[in-house]
Structure formats: C-alpha cells, structure tokens
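User: Let's play a game. I give you a shape written as tokens, and you guess the letters that built it. Ready? Here's round one.
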C-alpha cells in the first residue's frame, strides 16, 4: 500500500475543499446588493434597439439591415399587400381572352420610387400610382408584363420583415425579376405597343360628382342591367343627380340619390337636367374603390330625349373619369387610382312609365326568409325558375312545382287584409330585387295579376319592379 507524503492532500480532502469553495462563492453572490431595475422598454424602443426602421432605408442603407439580405441598388421594395391590391385592380380591367397579346399585359413605369401600373381593354383604361418603400433615385423602368403571371410572382416571392410582407423586384426593360435572389423572371413586351393613355383635355368638362358608399349603389343596381349585347344602351346604369336606374326590359331597379349611408352628390346637367349611361362593368368596379369616389364627365354633346319623354332623360355623350386617393391597405402615401371609360352613347328609355303609381295592396315580409326559399327553387327549376305567389286573406304563399323536375316546399308568410290573387314571377328577378333592397324587411306592392310587382326596402331607397309571366 502506497504511503502518502507528509502535507499532501488526499482525494477526500480535495473534495471537501471544493465543496467549501463552492459554498463560499454562493454566499458572495447572495451578498451582492441588487441593482436598481431599469424601466421596461416599450415595444417600439425594443424594436428600434435591434433593427433599423424600414422607412429610413434609402439607397445603400438597405444593405445595413440585419434582417434583409443584400439588395441590389436598382431594385424596388414594395409592401406585398399593396402591390397585390394594385395588380388586382388592373387585372379587373385587362381582357385575358383578347386575341391581342398586349391587352393581357400591364404596363409598368418606374421613376425613382414612384410606380405606375396601367391596364386597358380599349373601352376602359385604369392607372394605379404607388410609392415604393425603397427605390433608387435614378431607377427608370418602362415595360409590359402579363398581369396574371405578375400577381403569381408577387405571391411566391414575398419576404418577411418586422411582421410585414415585402416584395423585391426590378427590371432591365427586357425582363422583370422578383425576389432577393431573383428566383422568378418574366419576359416583357415593349411599352411602345401599349395603347396610349386617354387624353380628355380636348373635351369639355360637362359635370362632376361624388359617390359615397358606392358599393351599396353597385349592389342595388347592377343585377338589373342587361347582358344582351344587342341592347347595348341597357348594358349600363343611368345616373342623374336625383336618381339612378338599371333595367334589362323585364325588371327595373331604381334608387334615390341619397340614403342614410349611400349618397350621390352630382352637379346638374344643363338647364333641363339629364344624366349619363355608365357601363355596368365600370359601375361594378367603382363599388370596390372605397367609401368615397369622385368622378368627372367629359364630352362634346348632349343626346336629347324623345318628344314627350321627361327632359331629365337627356344623355351626355363622352367619357367618365373616376379618381380615388389612398385606397390601399396598409395606407400608402401618394397612392391613387384613375379609371377612364367611354360612356354609352344613346337615349335611355323612359323607365318611369313602367312603375305602377299606386299599389292596390302592400305587404311587408322578411327578406331573409324569402331569399332562402328562392334559393331552394333554383335547385328544382334551374335557369327557367318560376315561382307562384298566391295571396289569401291572411297569408302570402310562394311555391314552385314542376312536374318534369320536382317540387320544393312552399313558403307561407303572414299578411294582413290580403286581397285574393295569384301571379307567376321569375324567381331570380324576384330574389335580385329583394336582395338589392339591403334591408331586413321589404314591402311587396301588388295591383293585379298582370301588372308588375313593386319591391321596396323598408327605407324606401330602392324600388324594384318585376314583370309577371303571362302564363299565370
């Protein structure tokens, strides 16, 4: 057995000494006075301490970001949501089935950090202006690219920064690339082949106006406009300072120019009044532009109403131009949408003469219940859906029964002091009129079985007229 030299520590002594030193260090830590707690940083201060705010990125500063990879100085950085919204507005105008390839393109022009997107189907022209979050001062781009492919490229090349989705893209006018590493590249067409921007400076400004809550106007009127190309005058909405109307010859929707939320402020057209026939497609797009839409009408002449018709049926001929500012979400400074469209040239028919002056009986019904039942009839009847309305002393029944296809359960609604009668209507026309009222309760006005039925909302803003079917 080996002998331990005098004064040497055994393994047990070393272990005991290590434990003592550990306890001594722990006591020293506990004995240190606690530092005063620093005030908590706000979320903005904490974010600023770790990253550089995106709004200060200009030129080479973009490459100092610890989050974003190195960006070429000739590239643009745009908010993904804003760019997608802008492209979809352009895509709503572009004709994707056109035999002319240039009409499927959007024209992109860039001057520094200012971006302009354009599109047209030759009848309507749209121009969207944006401001990039980053763009080189000497950057110039002017080319055309397929709008659908560009929307797809934007969605596939987004990057995240400070909880925000961004898109990096650039162009040398021969191609457009997307993504920091240029993952997607699209070929372009020359901008010289793109149709020129409409020049309305040579036309007199005839009138102007403002739509407030244009989406409500669009929902109320566009279902009744005609889709028959042979009746092109009815393929639009007749807009006057007092009222708006749309008809396809078998039903009519007309609304007042003012409602609790929807309102039209329009200057009077000439001495005798009148209006414009705005294409249905243009009117639908206005509904997606926001809460307030300004428009101006340019033209050279006024088409006179027929002898014996009201003078307020006079129609302006020319073009209408709509402008919207700061439409995008999140809001982008200096952004705008300008859309220009030809007006329909012609005299709008005297729609007032088909509206019954006074109903023999009027009944209030629940709009939701009627719409749910009419959707069921479409399953049974399909395109040729006809419904029978039967009025008795204390109830109104809506039913459908086609021996060749099937039948749907009838709907019974309570009424007061009903006069017995029955009539047959097109279910889609009736559903459009009830839905366009945009109220919980609608009023149905009846004269007789051969006179049009009048559908009004509880606020009396919309008036729908539906012609009965003669086989009743």
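Assistant: Ready! My guess for every position:
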């Amino acid at each position: 057995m080996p002998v331990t030299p005098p004064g040497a520590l055994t393994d047990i002594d070393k272990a005991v000494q290590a434990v003592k030193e550990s306890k001594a260090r722990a006591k020293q830590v506990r004995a240190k006075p606690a530092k005063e707690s620093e005030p908590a940083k706000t979320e903005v201060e904490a974010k600023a301490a770790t990253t550089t705010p995106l709004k200060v990125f200009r030129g080479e500063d973009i490459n100092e970001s610890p989050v974003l990879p190195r960006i070429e100085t000739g590239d643009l950085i745009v908010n993904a949501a804003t760019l997608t919204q802008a492209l979809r507005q352009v895509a709503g105008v572009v004709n994707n089935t056109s035999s002319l390839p240039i009409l499927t393109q959007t024209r992109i022009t860039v001057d520094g950090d200012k971006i302009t997107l354009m599109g047209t189907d030759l009848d309507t022209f749209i121009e969207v202006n944006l401001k990039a979050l980053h763009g080189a001062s000497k950057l110039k781009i002017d080319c055309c690219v397929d709008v659908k492919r560009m929307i797809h490229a934007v969605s596939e090349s987004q990057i995240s920064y400070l909880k925000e989705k961004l898109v990096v893209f650039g162009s040398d006018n021969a191609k457009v690339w997307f993504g920091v590493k240029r993952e997607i590249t699209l070929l372009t067409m020359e901008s010289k082949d793109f149709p020129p921007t409409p020049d309305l400076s040579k036309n007199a400004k005839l009138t102007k106006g403002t739509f407030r809550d244009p989406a409500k106007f669009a929902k109320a009127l566009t279902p009744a406009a005609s889709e028959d190309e042979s009746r092109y005058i009815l393929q639009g909405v007749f807009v006057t300072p007092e009222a708006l109307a749309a008809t396809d010859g078998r039903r009519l929707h007309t609304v007042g120019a003012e409602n609790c939320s929807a309102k039209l402020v329009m200057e009077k057209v000439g001495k005798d009044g009148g209006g414009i026939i705005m294409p249905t497609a243009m009117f639908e797009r206005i509904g997606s532009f926001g809460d307030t839409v300004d428009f101006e009408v340019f033209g050279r002449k006024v088409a006179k109403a027929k002898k014996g018709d009201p003078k307020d049926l006079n129609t302006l001929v020319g073009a209408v131009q709509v402008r919207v500012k700061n439409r995008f979400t999140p809001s982008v400074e200096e952004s705008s949408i300008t859309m220009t469209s030809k007006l329909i040239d012609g005299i709008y028919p005297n729609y007032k003469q088909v509206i019954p002056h006074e109903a023999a009986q009027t009944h209030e019904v629940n709009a939701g219940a009627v719409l749910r039942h009419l959707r069921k009839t479409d399953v049974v009847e399909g395109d040729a859906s006809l419904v029978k309305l039967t009025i008795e002393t204390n109830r109104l029944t809506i039913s459908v029964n086609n021996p060749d296809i099937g039948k749907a359960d009838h709907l019974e609604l309570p009424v007061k002091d009903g006069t017995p009668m029955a009539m047959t209507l097109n279910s889609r026309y009736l559903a459009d009129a009830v839905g366009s009222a945009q109220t919980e309760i609608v009023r149905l006005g009846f004269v007789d079985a051969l006179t049009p039925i009048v559908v009004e909302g509880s606020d009396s803003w919309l008036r729908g007229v539906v012609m009965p079917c003669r086989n009743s």
